[in-house]
Write a structure and sequence with these properties.
With 153 residues, the protein is an alpha+beta fold. Helix content is 37%, strand content 26%.
């Protein structure tokens, strides 16, 4: 992973208003989250956010840009994610190694959340973030089920 820069509090606050993951947050909650501006990281094209097999326990909320999810020695592209998607939530929740690598395909900003940040968040904010993780996971599972169903017709 390359050395990355952080968003300022003002940049973080501005971007929180543009990403649907944060729609349920009040303005006051967005301001609290923006105070953790060192967790708002900008990755350059080709930077790895995380590596397959690593024990990295963070998850990412993509704020801008795009990333490829790649797997194996051949670095096969599994899928691509854009702003509003979450990545790494399974390792975050299960403490299991990463099942794929994530690489930026454009300049990409992400909110990077680890267990420490979750503990530091006010309870109501933390619960809203958890609710969004559950929602995003359910939406992804539904999309995968629909693809499988369509593929078997």
């Amino acid at each position: 992973m390359a050395i990355n820069k952080f968003l300022s509090k003002e940049q973080a606050l501005d971007i929180l208003d543009k990403v649907s993951f944060f729609d349920d947050l009040t303005n006051a909650e967005k301001k609290v989250l923006a105070e953790f501006n060192w967790c708002f990281i900008v990755y350059e094209n080709h930077d790895y956010l995380t590596d397959e097999g690593s024990l990295d326990k963070r998850f990412f909320v993509l704020l801008s840009g795009k990333v490829n999810i790649i797997k194996g020695i051949q670095k096969q592209i599994i899928t691509q994610f854009k702003a509003g998607e979450i990545i790494g939530e399974i390792s975050f929740l299960t403490n299991e190694p990463r099942t794929a690598s994530v690489v930026a395909t454009t300049k990409t900003a992400a909110l990077v959340i680890d267990q420490e940040l979750m503990k530091e968040m006010p309870v109501e904010l933390r619960e809203k973030v958890k609710d969004q993780i559950i929602l995003k996971m359910a939406q992804r599972l539904n999309r995968m089920n629909n693809r499988m169903t369509l593929g078997s017709i």
